[in-house]
Amino acid sequence: MTTPARSRQRGPYARSAERREAIAAAVLEIVVEKGHRGVTTAEVAERAGAREPTVLYHFPSKDHLLVAALRRSDEEQAEADDGGDSDAGLPERLRAFADSVTRRAGVLRLYAALAGEATTPGHPAQEYFAQRYAATVARHARMIERRQEAGLAPPGLDPVQVARQFLATWDGLQLQWLADPSFDLGEVLVAAFRRLTGEDRREARASLTETES
Amino acid sequence: MTTPARSRQRGPYARSAERREAIAAAVLEIVVEKGHRGVTTAEVAERAGAREPTVLYHFPSKDHLLVAALRRSDEEQAEADDGGDSDAGLPERLRAFADSVTRRAGVLRLYAALAGEATTPGHPAQEYFAQRYAATVARHARMIERRQEAGLAPPGLDPVQVARQFLATWDGLQLQWLADPSFDLGEVLVAAFRRLTGEDRREARASLTETES
DNA sequence: GTCTATAGAGTGATAGAC
DNA sequence: GTCTATCACTCTATAGAC
Fold first, then answer.
1. I need a labelling partner for B213 at 20 to 30 A (CA). Which of A16, A143, B38, B179 fits?
2. CA-CA distance, B113 to B110, in Å (whole number)?
């Protein structure tokens, strides 16, 4: 209203929320292009149309910047999976997700690297991972409970324990796959899900019966 | 034998193999004490009784240094588990190992962080992880085969696939545990092993029989 | 509260002599 | 193989304008 936007590349006094968004977007962009090791506060500032100290005003350290990129990536991912809250075709959805992972190696690397760093007390990513683990475990646990109620999963399982195991398998398999993509990530993941939740027992029972006894 | 060691702190012209060892040991020491973020080439040099360029002569970059620490840690670990090659008390051994993990958080963090980095092509840790994954998967697969032959595990399983899943679960659970050590790592790990290998089926069968049919 | 300008401490890494 | 000397660059901190 006061002054018309000057035709500078570095927009003057962009509202803070926009700035934060622009900065986070810039970080994610660099992560995808060059990997997180290629992120420098200088380039982030450049791409966000700001100066370095401005960047560090919004995110007090480089690690905070990286966490912001992870958060932003999560949001984009969440938008992508919008509709499917049904547990119905779960194995299919798993497989689909595993496929999408293929294209986002840069983010996965960042996720893995930060997951390691984040476990040191006081690290900026600590809260992010604590929340993320807790939320994911809770979500998976609820899903397993529903499957138990539906008779798909055996009632003896501890849903939280299985949820933890499944999350762990997921993260670990991604790592292995990134290191050597010679196996079908979706397939191995779905198989692990079936075994961990005991949903392979129907088929297993037959082969078991003919094996022992 | 030839010349007695001179009583200088910075040994002059220590044989190269010794230098490498001293440097790797210094890195591991710092990792355990302060975490891998606390590793600086300067301090490594100091602890190894050498100068910085000497350190970087043997290990051309900081990442190489970190890999060296990981390798050295593996060796120490291997010595510790020397005797137990029997598959007999495997769950017990798993549990014991999971306990020992508790005391080596620094190394685990480094492992996790590097595992993420290592997936970028050309990274110094790439080879280490490729070898380690391959060796671990092969070792676990052999173990599962033996258990299949012994009638402990169902014959329908793909040993390599299960081995992958188990390794993944292991790595992932360590991460979760480091982020929030509120659960019993050994217990969850053993349970995952049982389910992934189908060795919980005997017990499961009973509960299954009374559940369905 | 939001940003710009400037500056500094510390890092990994290199060139080249011994 | 080991060292001295040096560099380029990154993250971060401070002072102050709007």
1. A143
2. 5
- Across the A/B interface, how many CB contacts are shorter than 8 Å? 175
Greater pLDDT, A5 or B166: B166
Instruction: Tell me what pLDDT residue B3 has.
Output: 40
Residues of B in contact with A205 (CB under 8 A): 205, 208
- pLDDT of res. A3: 33
Whose tokens are 């060691």? That residue is: B5
DSSP state of A150: T
The verdict on a CB contact (< 8 Å) between A172 and B176 is no
Give the residues of chain A that fall short of pLDDT 70.
Answer: 1-14, 82-88, 98-99, 101-103, 202-213
User: Tokens 């193999």 correspond to what residue?
Assistant: B17
Closest nucleotide to B52, Cα to C1': D3
Element (H, E) at A75: helix A62-80
What is the distance of C-alpha B30 from the center of its chain? Answer: 17
Cα angle, residue B164 at apex, residues B162 and B165 outer, rounded to 5°: 65
Q: What is the model's pLDDT at position B103? A: 60
**First vs last C-alpha separation in chain B:** 78
Q: How many CA within 13 A on the CB side of residue A1?
A: 0
- Which backbone phi and psi does B104 adopt, to 5 degrees? -125, 40
CA of B52 to C1' of D5 (A): 12
> Which nucleotide is nearest to A37 if distance is taken from CA to C1'?
D10
pLDDT the model gives residue B6: 35
Contacts of A108 in chain B (CB under 8 A): 116, 119
Q: What percent of chain A has pLDDT over 90?
A: 67
Q: Judge: B171–A170 Cβ closer than 8 Å, yes or no.
A: no
Query: pLDDT tens, A123-171?
Result: 999 999 999 999 999 999 999 999 999 999 999 999 999 999 999 999 9
Ordered by where they begin, the domains of chain A are: 10-80 (1.10.357.10), 84-213 (1.10.357)
DSSP state of B39: -
Q: Do B176 and A167 touch (CB under 8 A)?
A: yes
Are B198 and A199 in contact, with CB atoms under 8 Å apart? no
Judge whether residue B13 contacts strand D, using its CB and a 7 Å cut-off. Answer: yes
Nearest to B183 among A164, A173, A195 (CB): A164
| Residue that has been written with the tokens 């900081």 in this structure | B62
Measured between alpha carbons, how far is residue B167 from residues A146, B53, B98, B137, B161 in Å?
28, 38, 13, 7, 10
B183/A176 Cβ within 8 A: no
